[in-house]
Write a structure and sequence with these properties.
Number of strands: 7
Largest sheet: 5 strands, antiparallel
Order of helices and strands: HHHEEHHHEEHHEEEH
Mean pLDDT: 86
Shape: elongated
Helix content: 40-55%
CATH topology of the largest domain: Beta-Lactamase
CATH architecture of the largest domain: 2-Layer Sandwich
Strand content: 15-25%
Distance between the termini: 57 Å
Low-confidence stretches: none
CATH class of the largest domain: Alpha Beta
Length: 245
Amino acid sequence: MTKLIDVKEREDVILDLIVEAYIKETNPVSSSHLCQKYNLPYSSATIRNVMETLEEKGLLSHIHTSSGRIPTKKGFKHYVEHLKREEMIDNRDLGLDLHDTSSGGEQIIDKALDVLSENSGYASFLAISGKGHKLFSRGTRFMLEQPEFEDIKKLKNVFYALEVKINKLEELLLHYFNEQVKILIGDEIGFEEISDCSLVVSGSGEKDIAYVLALLGPMRMDYMKAVSCLCSIKKQFEEIIEGNI
């Protein structure tokens, strides 16, 4: 049994390293790259064997004839499921204090979402339900900076979803007002047009107001950074939402 556990742990470690390397570098990851970068206690041949096993399980895939591999949707989901949420929520300082602003409600929201997008590198959203519903969004331009969206078809699909289906996105977000952190990957979002993306949401309900903050980015999203940025902004909203919005 110990040997089986060790094999499973080794697979998890190598999958996590491949996902993290792919998130940062956007290139297929090879066994030799893992050995050189992380100084692993396994041979390159052993890592290759593990990578083949992970591919057989549908967690990794090949790109063309490259010797490297990239995570699949299933691989990203497995990675996210094993992230430690307490390590993700580190109250990152984004250099923003909403308490000090003299702006009104919508100006506060725009400023907060701008900071959220600039620090995370992803499109940001705020859905509010009180006396009616309203959705704010900023930072869509950051989608253009992601290598995945050099594919014009993918980019068109994203902008179609954010323009034509924006009301449905608002409805989706408001389903998560009681979630501290929820990560939706690919088809879990429920929109075919953005099934190559991931959506990170965090909500709160305060008396007569419920709201949800969200970040939309490629599936190759830096989930740790995204959650940390999101929770930092949400913490300030929890303190001022009733008085300013």
